[in-house]
Amino acid sequence: MIVVMKAHADDADRAAILARLEEHNLRGHLSEGDERSVIGVVGARIPDGLSEQLQSMSGVQSVVRISRSYKLAAREFQPHATIVRVGNVEIGGPNPVVMAGPCSVENEAQLLTTARAVADAGAHILRGGAFKPRTSPYAFRGLGEAGLKILAAARDETGLPIITEALNTRDIELVARYTDIIQIGARNMQNFALLEEAGATGLPIMVKRGPAATIEEWLLAAEYVLATGNRNVILCERGIRTFETATRNTLDLNAVALARRRTHLPIIADPSHGTGKWYLVEPLALAGIAAGAHGVMIEVHHDPDRAMSDGPQSLSHASFARLMDKIRVLNGLYEHDLEAA
User: pTM above the 0.70 mark?
Assistant: First the structure.
């Protein structure tokens, strides 16, 4: 349920609504737009008759039921798009944002070499894994805090904000000390304690879609973060598991286009994990942006053949630079359409 306030409603009117909700063990989340303010009502159960009570209160224009199980992520709650700001970067605006870097931070020389290359090519955010979830316990699983320190050094040198993954609740505080955006990986999309702990940091949180998750489950994962009061949430479509075995996953561009209609949150497409093959990354990155993604996440390595993780899906520095040129061309073609959306 959402409570739409009249244009002339004041702070006292909004406070009265929030107080009434608390009487019923409900929480109200205020979203203030240019033309109206909306209070989203969340809780276990909305009592019968509450809608009528709220409708009669001062400053209320209308009370609308939201049938979707996710409330705060729904476009009905917030018609205008959420823009997540990280330094000078705006995620969710008219221009696509490119997050790029190696799957794993292997050592300082490797990370700094690629950080410089993606920065020179025009990337906006540096990605790199310090903690890596791996299918095999014997695979390289990241450098931990040492990797976070290398990422921070790369940020200092290049000026690029960084995004990196947190794997469990005990690492959230450590990761939050170094990163600008916390990534919740696909395997952890429904780790609800981790989502809440990450949301409580107040940092921007990017929620990757799980390999077998429906769109509704994906948006409900984002809802967990939003319910902490943290509005800086980004969605990432990174491919789902289907019957197809020719690619690592199936990048679901249906989900990108549909999510643009259902939610106000920015959406990033990850064609690296979505395909698993470096030569498919470029066309799927461009297709993702054309489908409505607000940006892409690309794995880049100075020597993909010798990468310690995800080498087959990583672009070389030269291939990434060519992709950036094509993204700029595509952005010029779609610029007016993106602004209208």
Answer: yes
